Every structure is written in structure tokens, then in C-alpha cells.
Amino acid sequence: MLIKSKKGWEIPEREATPQEIFFNRRRFLKTTGLVLASAASMGLGACDGEAEESGAGAGASGTSSDPTADLYPVTRNERYMIERELTPKSISSTYNNFYEFGSHKRIYDKAQELKIRPWQVVIDGEVNNPETLDIDTLIRAMPLEERLYRHRCVEAWSMTVPWSGFALKELVKRADPKSSARYVRMETFQDPDMASGQRQYWYPWPYVEGLTMEEATNDLAFMVTGVYGEPLPKQYGAPIRLAVPWKYGFKSIKSIVRFTFTSQRPVSFWEEINPQEYGFWANVNPEVPHPRWSQATEEVLGTGKRVPTQLFNGYGEYVAGLYKDMQDKPIYF
After folding, report:
1. pTM of the predicted protein model
2. Are 158 and 301 within 8 A, CB to CB?
3. pLDDT at position 63, please?
4. Superfamily classification of domain 13-323
5. What are the domain boundaries of the chain?
């Protein structure tokens, strides 16, 4: 008899809301014989049935004129499921870190000043196929899917997000890195006239992050271009950002304009500011506290609850092997 045990990140199939219902209420209504007009009469708006709380409506979404809007929602990859309920869009879209626009959490309104078209992405460094791509060309060239991921901030809060996008390893494959490339260095935009936070000269702009080639080609490493079944709103890091859910959130760089393949380990933004508090690896570990607070538990946004933090944020099955020969190194911070 075959006995299958659930992984820590899985939920029973019976408890998962079908994608067509959760992310496209209008389509669901149509399939049950109701016309689109009935959706309007029921008050179903841009948030697919969620209340527009704290300003998280069309203005906070900022995706109405996105040239890739026709691509969403995308098919959910059922391999990437989690045991928690999704964080409501009204919460995750209005509680954001985006230091280019300021250091407070209610930055979503200010982030609407981000100009995401035209937007070009440079792929360079130690690769056989360097190129500069228009973001819409890149997105349409990639196999898009949806993944449900935990997101764990170094500040000890977490959320659960339905990201849309493509595996980073697909971009790596396109770049065709040379054997000398050991890291992928990622860089965001720099425009202090647009992004007032970048006028704060004490920060080492532009924001830089990096991964090893092994991390970048791991199945979990994900390039995000959408969320909640729509193109990525600006405050999340539009038009393209990284999601590496086994690491603290500051590793998931936003609004990327350059991928550079290199033999030299990059110095990341927060590592350069304070290497005693923010390291290159930034793997989630409840046993290794931040110098100023514990990482043993986390507040799950929207629930009012604190829960125990899991090693690698619960994704050890995917990523523990990346670090099996590094027990003597500070790989968790």
C-alpha cells in the first residue's frame, strides 16, 4: 500500500480554492449562467470581491494600462502550495517596503510615481548571449505560471502571496552563462527625480542583490511579473522582481533593470550598509536571531497571530542541499 505524507508547504487539495474562482470571479459567475452585469450589481470590483480597504483599490493596483494585462491570470503550478490562507490583497498591497520611495510601510501610494513603461532589462557579464530586452518582450517570451509562496521579512512578519511569473532558471538559460559565471548580480533602477527615497545619499543606490548560480537555477527562484491574477502593481516592485521564499524578503529585489553574470560575489544593498546585521545569504533560520530581535516567531499579517518560524521558511526540501557543505559558514545571515 502506498502511503503519501504531506509536505510542510502543502495543503489538502479539497481546501484549495480553484484558481478560476479565487482570481476571476467574473468568469465563475459567467459559467454559472450569470451575465457580467450581475457582477457589477453585486459590487464585485477590481479586487475580485475583496473590500477596497486602506486605499487598496484601482489606485493602489496601478495595472489598468499594463501592456501584458491580457496574459493574466495564468495557470497555477500545483506543486507550489502552502498550508496557510492567502493574505488578502487589501493587506499585502498596502503594507510594503520600497526604500526607493521612503522607509515607512504605507509606501504604496507614493510608489505609484514609479514609471514602468518604457522599461528595459539588460542581461550582461559573463554570458554567451548578452542582450537588452523590452520588458514586454521578455515577459511574453517566458512560460508564465502562478505559485503560492510564503514571504518572510527579516523584520519578523510574513504573508502568503500568489505570485505570477517564471522560473529564474529560464532567464539563466536564455543568457547562456559561461563556465566562469558563479553569481547573478541584480540591480534596480536609479532615478532620484522620480523616486524621492533615492535622494537619501547615505544609502548605496542603486539597490543591488545577488545569488549564486546554484541558487539562481534552483526550482524555487522565481521572477515575479504579476500577483493576485493581474500584472504586478508598482508597490510590489513592478514590472519585474525576484522571489526567493527561503530567504528573508530583502533578498527579493524589486523593479530590476539589470542581470549581470559574474565570477565575483556581489555585495548586496543591506550588506554594504551594515554587514553585521544583514548578510549575503539571508536564509531564514529561527535559531539565528537578528542582532536586535529574535527570528524564532513571526506575525502573519491579517491574522493577528504569531507562529513559529521554520528553517528555510519551510522550503528545506527544495534548498537544504544547496548548503550541505557549508556548515562552518554563516550561511543563515
Report:
1. 0.83
2. yes
3. 54
4. Oxidoreductase, molybdopterin-binding domain (3.90.420.10)
5. 13-323
